[in-house]
Amino acid sequence: MRIGELAERTGTSRRLLRYYEEQGLIIASRGPNGYRDYDEPTVDRVIQVRGLLDAGLPTRIIKQILPCLDKPRTIYFPDATPEMIATLEAERDRMTRRAECLLRNRDAIGEYLAAVREYDPAVR
Amino acid sequence: MRIGELAERTGTSRRLLRYYEEQGLIIASRGPNGYRDYDEPTVDRVIQVRGLLDAGLPTRIIKQILPCLDKPRTIYFPDATPEMIATLEAERDRMTRRAECLLRNRDAIGEYLAAVREYDPAVR
DNA sequence: TCGAACCCTCACATTGATGTGAAGGTCTAC
DNA sequence: GTAGACCTTCACATCAATGTGAGGGTTCGA
Predict the structure, then answer these.
(1) In strand C, which positions have an atom below 7 A from any protein CB?
(2) Which residue of A has its CA nearest to B55?
């Protein structure tokens, strides 16, 4: 598919799709006219990239962890250098802390909302 | 305490502490000489702000949700407008999705690491 | 009283994720 | 063949979170 369709299906601007490609997060083959040509799995990949970006990860990190996240579990060991492993472990731990922080504060918001509703049931 | 001590205790640059104040995330009283003067709870607040920022929330949102997160559960209802409630609900849901995305991908990284270790136990 | 180590404000620089638009090539339908 | 809707690259703009430094005041200990 071309960039317009991918943009529409992922809710992402064309500009950003080109940016993600520039950052090595997605790849596109090119037609004889120079147009980008995306395959079907790219849709999911873009959605995943968006999710990770929204979760606060920079493209630099996303690029590093993406190879581990491919669906058909095709683990690529050749490039599993010790540095890579260490990076992944560190990032995994950071993600855990991030998620905990989010959930903790989310729960606090939930408690607040519950208290407000009890105080004034008209709110909702 | 003054800004230097707060910076050291929270691992945050003075510049950023002033920025957070400018954004309304923390408050400081002023000494007669104009120096900022922080109280003890500000330490925790700064750490919490850092956590939320790291989790990907913008200062704009953090500022909105902070009042709900105060420790002594002092719920302030006066400003609980319907818009505010809606914002909080939306943000709470976004935080849930963010956390889910993080945990999902974190687990994928974990699986990858486990697979790598099985393949080559020398890696740790 | 002097220097070191603080503090202040102001302002410009940078980085990453984006938006926007210009200048131009391609494809399709009429 | 021409218009409209695509696509290309390039470049400049913006926004939030930061860094950095200038120019200047305050505090404190030797």
Answers:
(1) 6-9, 11, 16-21, 25-27
(2) A98
Q: Hey, are the CB atoms on B102 and A101 less than 8 Å from each other? A: no
CB atoms near residue A95 (< 10 Å): 27
Q: How far apart are CA B108 and CA A74, in angstroms?
A: 12
Residue A4, CB, less than 7 Å from strand D?
Answer: yes
pLDDT for B124 equals 52
- Per the CB < 8 Å rule, is A109 touching B82? no
Would you say B90 and B110 are in contact if contact means Cβ atoms under 8 Å apart? no
Q: What is the pLDDT of residues B81-114, one digit of tens each?
A: 788 888 889 999 999 999 999 999 999 989 888 8
Single-letter amino acid, residue B71: K
Binning pLDDT at 50, 70 and 90, where does residue A33 land?
very high
- The CA–CA distances, whole Å, from A97 to A30, A103, B50 equal 40, 10, 12
Cβ separation A95–B112 shorter than 8 A = no
Closest residue in A to B84 (Cα–Cα): A113
- Chain B CB contacts of A112 below 8 Å: 68-69, 75, 88
* Closest to B112 measured CA to CA, from A13, A113, A16, A77: A77
State the pLDDT at residue A72: 62
Q: Residue A54: how many CB atoms within 10 A of its CB?
A: 14
What's the mean pLDDT in B28-47?
A: 96
